[in-house]
């Protein structure tokens, strides 16, 4: 870290910028164990879903997309949504499925930083233990009531701020 870095937190989530210029927001809860919409998401369901996500990433490099707004389940052919990030390093912590949100451009990161998308809501296929994507939302009420996705910032001695120092990007 730079010697002139003064760290302070104005939020709950840490972010870092990789050498490729893309951002990662670390340790974001995306799903909670329990009974939701008539389906029981047990320890086994959580563990299998995490294992499936990790296997997809390890075997093929596939990462589930992050996009703005939910896919309309009534559409026979879903409307293509631009990807604003990817779900990486999916894992379980307690009753939650956690992910790092990676591959976020400066423009999209600014929206996260400015609070445009404070909430997130997973899209999944319960029967196949799959998280197919993560919708980020603004005013749309999310299913899981996690705290807003506020970013913790660092401030440099010269008064400029950045969400983190540049770190190697390993995706």
Description:
Strand 11 (154-156) and strand 12 (161-162) form a beta hairpin. The chain has helices spanning 43-60, 106-113; strands at residues 5-7, 15-18, 23-32, 34-36, 39-41, 65-68, 85-93, 96-104, 119-125, 130-137, 154-156, 161-162, 166-167. The model is unreliable at 1-10 and 163-171 (pLDDT under 50). The chain is globular. The chain has 171 residues and is an alpha+beta fold. The strands form 3 sheets. It has an 8-stranded mixed β-sheet. A 3-stranded antiparallel β-sheet has the order 1-11-12, with no helix packed on it.
Give a quick summary of the entry:
The protein has 171 residues and is of the alpha+beta class. It is 15% helix and 39% strand.
**Biggest beta-sheet profile:** 8 strands, mixed
Total E-strand runs: 13
Spell out the helices and strands N to C.
EEEEEHEEEHEEEEE
Residue share in β-strands: 35-45%
Shape: globular
Query: Unreliable stretches, pLDDT < 50, 5 or more residues?
Result: 1-10, 163-171
Q: Numbering strands along the chain, what is their spatial order in the largest sheet?
A: 9-10-6-7-8-3-2-13
Cα-atom radius of gyration: 17 Å
Separation, N- and C-terminal Cα atoms? 21 Å
Counting H and I runs of at least 4 residues, what is the number of helices? 2
Report the helical percentage.
Answer: 10-25%
Instruction: Kindly name the structural category.
Output: alpha+beta
Mean pLDDT: 81
